[in-house]
Amino acid sequence: MRKVICMLVAVVSLALFSGQAYAQRYLPGMKAVELRGGFAEGSKSPLNHYAGFAVSGYTKKANRWVVGAEYLLKNYGYRNVSVPRAQFTAEGGYYLKFLSDPSKTLFLSIGGSALAGYETVNWGNKMLYDGSKLLAKDAFIYGGAITLELETYVTDRIVLLASVRERALWGGSLSVFTTQFGLGVKFIIN
Fold first, then answer.
1. What pLDDT does 19 receive?
2. Is-contact 56 65, C-beta < 8 A?
3. Which of 99, 147, 162, 169 is most deeply buried (CB count within 10 A of its CB)?
4. pTM given for the model
């Protein structure tokens, strides 16, 4: 009988106090690896898309440093074909956490990043199918990005991401601003 009472007390205690213990997330010194991808300025035919990889390091104030690389492919229409513009960029930035829920499951962050990389138009081919010549040149590009990111923890080590990003890159021959909408997954490694 004594064992049954002890078991009953243990079960009731766990049921009453289980809501008070929260997972330890956004701790200083944590590191994470993330994969992200999405669409750039809507989805046209063919799709404008991007893919990226980043490493995050968390700070004492629940913010994080981010270092990564990204590939963006954006298509421009010319008569009945599309002319691709590809950008390969490296990123270094800082994200501030400004909103989270009490259970530490959802986090909203805003970040600023410096970007530098290379842009190629039509993969370096200046002549189009009809004999026209492209005036846009391949170039080194530089600039920055502002990102609004929502994170939701699936487990203590797996995080789903949703983001909206505005990039501004100078040095290329085409448009300066690009809006991106994306999803990603982050793995906490430390």
1. 47
2. yes
3. 169
4. 0.81
Tell me if 18 is assigned to some domain.
no
Tell me if the bond preceding 28 is cis, omega within 30° of 0.
Answer: no
Q: How many C-beta neighbours within 10 Å does residue 82 have? A: 16
58 lies in some domain? yes
Question: For 47, which DSSP code?
Answer: P
Q: Which amino acid is at 162?
A: A
Give the CATH number of the domain where residue 38 resides.
2.40.160.20
Q: What share of the chain is helix, strand, coil (3-state, %, to 5)?
A: 10, 60, 30
Q: How many structural domains does the chain have?
A: 1
Q: Quick count: other Cβ atoms within 10 Å of Cβ 33? A: 14
- Does residue 16 lie within any of the structural domains? no
Q: What Å distances lie between residue 102 and 23, 43, 134, CA to CA?
A: 11, 36, 55
| Per-residue pLDDT, 103 | 82
Read off the pLDDT of each residue in 39-63 and give the average, rounded to a whole number: 86
Q: Which residue range(s) make up the domain with 130?
A: 23-188
